[in-house]
Amino acid sequence: MRFFSIVTLLFVSGCVQLTTESLPSQSVDSSYTLRTLTWRSGDVMNLGYKIFERQGRVAFCGAYSQHTVNSVFTDDFNTQALAAAQVRLAGETLLRGLNFFALGGYVADGLPSAQATCVLTDRPWEARFARTKPRIRW
Questions:
Q1: Rounded to two decimals, what is the model's pTM?
Q2: What's the start-to-end Cα distance of the chain, in Å?
Q3: CB 17, CB 96: distance < 8 Å
């Protein structure tokens, strides 16, 4: 019985959302990293995101835009992709799920034209993060 409890606790702890709190939004600008997803249909989702230090912790902002060419399912695909995304920083998971990203206007081959939604994570800031770009994985 005790073994089952330990296994359950380990499983549940791997599914828990990392702690964040909301911050004021900010304009997406050239300091943001661009990540483009192109679906088989030719539809595109552009993500713009960045990290910075706030109150001694890692803050993360992001927005996305979409361009629908051939599929009526693009909204659903993009929503599912955002929900499944993980942000990794220096080999650690910083965030799970990017559903908080703001939807902005699409600019071909560019960052979303939007106000980015921002959160403050519970991860302490380290000086090396100033030179590190977060990675989004699925």
A1: 0.82
A2: 34
A3: yes
